Amino acid sequence: MEKSEALRDRILETFASSDVPDADALFDTSDAECLERTDAFRGRKWSDLTFEFLEEQQPDALEYFSATAYRYFLPAYLLVALYRESSVRYFTISTLTQDRRDPVTCAWFLERVGALTPEQRSLLKVFLQYLEANAENKSTRVLCSDALNSYWWNTEKKAFESVEREELRKRIEDAFSMSPYPGDKNLAEDPKDLESKQVARVFQGKKWEEVDLDFLERPGAHLSALFFFSDVAYHYYLPAYLLVSVQEKACDYGTRADVLCALTRRAEPGLRLWFDKRHACLTPAQKRVIREFLLFTEDFSEYESARKDATQALDSYWRNVSL
Fold this sequence. Notes:
By secondary structure, the protein is mainly alpha-helical.
């Protein structure tokens, strides 16, 4: 069977169970242009839409549909785009491209992609790969490449990232589960230092399992408290900071940057000694999970600077640490 025919059959199969959306579910807003673009689709089945109808009347209607209507009518556009160089093909590929420069357009894209099933998203990646390799028009191949790079190449990685994130959280919790509270009088690195005293006061009696992002973001809670803890307090509260840093959306880069900085062994003798003292009492399991945290950050962080900082920390000590 020709690749195009196999892809056609897969489109038909993957979208076969979609229900015809109600007339008032075709659009998100009621502005005149949106109503005009979507009105011709009222009561129509996607399987009845022809090339002539889409190309001559509604080549860009996908851009005006609600997420529900987009999902329903998308296969009709895919089938036309699969075989013909046309305006339909151009607009279809455009709606499959995530523009991260524009928050509104990006939100529109993610809402529509979010309405698709995993099987449908997988199909769209294959569809774009097929056109990238086989489209007769170079500009179309470039458009497909841009669309793949904007989102679709990362779909499997994102799925793996989500699973790995949860597994890492569990390993952090397990590795530090038996760490004893250091005692109220052993929290500050320098009891005479004003900031160290403030950190000790805020964290007094606080179990590390109770320290989350909401707590760290409170006024006076010290997002950078890691640098004012005593060695034993640092060891005790480190897992809380690791867990906060693993969070997908809640953690700003400032918190994570402090963690990565604290986990980097510096060349200066004084800082190197400080690092060695801080991490001397870690168990092999704790060292292992810290390395896993850094490897995860190096692979998956949304911040390039965080990925570079994680690499620096790994190269400074953790990548070859003796376990």
